[in-house]
Amino acid sequence: NAALTALQNALSFDKKDKKLLKRLALLKEYASKWQELDMTPEQLQSLEIYLQEKLEICGCDHTLVYTREWLDISTLHSKKSKIVKALQNQGGFCDCEVLMNVID
Prior knowledge:
By secondary structure, this protein is mainly α. It folds into 2 domains: 2-37; 41-103. The protein has helices spanning 2-13, 18-37, 41-58, 65-73, 80-89, 95-103. Helix 1 (2-13) packs antiparallel against helix 2 (18-37). It starts with a helix and ends with a helix.
């Protein structure tokens, strides 16, 4: 949010800077994705570590079995269906896609 505000302030001085406009658009896109996920960076990192460990051992079965498992044991279990939908909206339809498309 701070970066978004700073960039908007910079644009108020120079509305013709295309690089700043592109950065502003990207920041707004990323901000909406974070809001949709409703997870902290620390929670997302915890999910990443959990998925990397599970997938290294068991591989991906093209479902969200380990993501759902992590949500069940995390403090986010009450938001499980909302987070799963947000992950899918961002291209995470299975555990390996959550790693590649959402977390990366």
